[in-house]
Protein: Flagellar motor switch protein FliN
Organism: Kiloniella antarctica
Amino acid sequence: MSDDDAMNNDDVDDIFDQAPDAPVDESPKTPPKQNDSGDRIVPAVHGVGLEVSAILGTAQMPVSQLLKMGRGAVVELDKYIGDTIDISINDQMIARGEVMIKEDRLCVEIIEMIKRTGD
């Protein structure tokens, strides 16, 4: 968690200094934070889990070949290291990325964010 996301000690002290029955001042002390593109950051949703998918490639083969496969079989995909792939959250494409290897791990570097247009 970055320092920007965490509550500072003064905020915590303010919460505990209030009497239990005292009205709570819910007005923000600072304007809402914004990211580089000017979108408002909403901390309340930071803990929500989402399903992220990056399709590394596809392959076509007859069912007969698929049925003959066993443990250790290798399926060659149509993508290579350095190729661009789509990245989705909950089946909605949100970015494009580049397939790469970093310290023996397969990774995807985000190279372009996709802006959603009206539904």
Observations:
- Residues 46 and 118 are 24 Å apart (CA to CA).
- The radius of gyration is 23 Å.
- The domain at 9-113 is CATH 2.30.330.10 (Surface presentation of antigens (SPOA)).
